[in-house]
Amino acid sequence: MAKYVLKTNRLSKSYKDTKSLSDVSVALEAGKIYGLVGRNGAGKSTFMKLVAGLSFPTSGSLELFGHSNKQALQAERKRVGCMIEYPSLDLNLSASENMRMHRILRGVPNKEVEQELLTLVGLNDTKKKKAKNFSLGMKQRLGIAIALLNSPEFLILDEPINGLDPLGVIDIRNLLKKLCEEKQITILISSHNLPELYHVATDYIFIHHGEIKQTLSRKELDERCSQHLSITCDQPEKLTSVLEMELQTTNYKVMPDNTVKVFDYLSEKEKVAQTLFKHGLAVTNFSVEGDTLEDYFISVVGGAENE
Ligand SMILES: Nc1ncnc2c1ncn2[C@@H]1O[C@H](COP(=O)(O)OP(=O)(O)OP(=O)(O)O)[C@@H](O)[C@H]1O
Questions:
Q1: Residue 304 contacts by C-beta under 8 Å, 6 or more apart in sequence?
Q2: Ligand 1 contact via 45 beta carbon (within 6 Å)
């Protein structure tokens, strides 16, 4: 049975005239990396703050590690690490001094954890350099090290790759994969950039105007974004048997509306069309489809920024 780190039930948050989050119901399974993707102002930080206990819902409820009552939730939040909106660094302190300050503030007795985590995030040789002289990527990595101080099982990171150069993005991506694979930490990471999240997340949650528009796995996203022939005809079952028997491919998928997606023969479309015709199939749609990640994002959350 799936083990859930987080479940929300119609979680909502309003600020005076603004409904920042509307009826958000999601379930996050342990051991995965969830990408929370949405435009600026979609409600990503609002959602993360509610989960982290930094803000309170207007309505709805949430469950962490299977617990939902107020006191139990507070206790379970000790198993959560977060970096929301910006890393909470003292810019006049070095990496080690920042780690020490946060370790003491959180009551973590083990001093060794400071260096262990700085090594993990690749900041063990920054010596006395003050955080104000760090690159954005180094600040983000230090923020992640701070979020890891209490050995969390669930890590919440708000836009940790926003504004980083390509190498900085790769560093953070590799770090997150390592945390998930080696330390079995479940991760929720937000971004407004689906291609950036694509390489790190195992699952994606699309949020727009405070509502969850779609949740899907990497495999499902790949299927939707890979180029394929989309075929609609009067006899879908006969179509699949022609694909298997005549065209020798099982690389297809029948969609709920009976459209068949064929992932082979993209460069031999005529051969497919002729074969279907030869077998008397009445084809009503035959087209090449498949979005880029950017197109797919827009198809889910809409095109215009201020619609
Ligand atoms: N404290 C607040 N008071 C009033 N409105 C707020 C507050 N916090 C957030 N909002 C509003 O709630 C909506 C969602 O904001 P939120 O910061 O959660 O979005 P986001 O997806 O994290 O965006 P960004 O990527 O720009 O940080 C926005 O319309 C924002 O203006």
A1: none
A2: yes
Tokens at residue 7, please? 């479940």
Tokens of 305: 């920024």
3-state SS, one letter per residue, for 79-122: HEEEECCCCCCCCCCEHHHHHHHHHHHHCCCCCHHHHHHHHHCC
The predicted model scores a pTM of 0.83
Going by pLDDT thresholds of 50, 70 and 90, the confidence category of residue 1 is: low
278-297 pLDDT, tens digit per residue, is 999 999 999 998 878 888 88
Q: What pLDDT is stored for residue 296 in this prediction?
A: 86
Which among 60, 62, 144, 61 has a CA at the least distance from the CA of 98? 144
The complex's ipTM works out to: 0.96
Mutate to test the pocket of ligand 1, among 13, 15, 192 (most ligand atoms within 8 A of CB): 15
Q: Let me know: does 67 contact 109? Beta carbons within 8 Å.
A: no
Q: Who contacts 178 (Cβ-Cβ below 8 Å, separation ≥6)? A: 120
Which residue minimizes the CA distance to atom 12 of ligand 1?
Answer: 20
Q: What is the DSSP string of 49-63?
A: HHHHTSS--SEEEEE
